[in-house]
Design a protein that fits this description.
mainly alpha; 0% strand
Length: 150
Amino acid sequence: MTEPYRIREAAIWAQARTDYLSGLSAEAVCRRHDLGLSAFRRRARKYGWRRSDQVEPPPGELDLNLYSDLDMDDLARTARLRFAEAVEGGRASDARRWRALADELTREARAFDRDFFRGMSREEVAASMENMRREIEEEDEALLGPPPED
C-alpha cells in the first residue's frame, strides 16, 4: 500500500533545502521533515539544490548547528526506530548496532535528567517538564503556525 499524498508548507521545504545543502543526506532530510523521497528529489532537481554549488567550510570546521534542535531523547528514539527497521529487514548486525546505540543514548539522557532535576520532587519535575513541553509547542507554533485540526 502506498503512503497518502502529503502537502508540506513552504517553510518546511525551505528548512529541508537548508538541511540538505548543509550536508544531510536526502533520506535523512525526508525522515526529519516527513517528506517523500521522490518529491524531495524532484523539487531539488527543479530548483537546483546542488551541494556542489555550495562553499565548502575549511577542513576541520564542521557546522553542527544543523543538529542543535535534537536532544538525547530524540536521538535515542531515532536509534530505536532504526533498530526496528533493521529487525524487520532481517539485518541482524545493523539491528545489534542500533540497539546498542539506543541503549547508550538512553543511559546518557537519563544521567543528564538525574543531574538536571537533582533535588526536585516528582511533582516539581513533572511541572518543569510540562513547562518545557509548552514552551517548545509555543516556539513551534510561532515558527510554523498553529497545528492542523484533526
